[in-house]
Amino acid sequence: MRAVEHAPVTSADLGADLGERATLVQFSTAFCQPCRATRRILGEVAAMVPGVRHVEIDAESRLDLVRRFEVLRTPTVLVLDEAGNVVKKASGQPRRADVIAALGAAVDSASHGPSHPSDKV
Question: Which member of 38, 59, 61, 116 has the lowest number of beta carbons within 10 Å of its beta carbon?
């Protein structure tokens, strides 16, 4: 997957506050089975890591964001650092260990500058 540079994501973009340390943004659709499991995984990880917030976006009602972040299927997950920079992007149901590793990269990028998004969350 190619790296795509984006302007930082704001709370106004998401309609929800960003996490103090990182934000897990999930694009979902109503009848997406893997989206339900992804919601559970991201919610659990966000709950166990202080300063991390999980925000779920209905892809069908936010086509502006779908286009902006080139979301081609659901679920798609963006991992944002504290400033709203996209540190990781992946589609499909993530593994818990990969989400935790991506959060580590997001928190680390806050002190070392953002890395390029990859397709592994």
Answer: 61
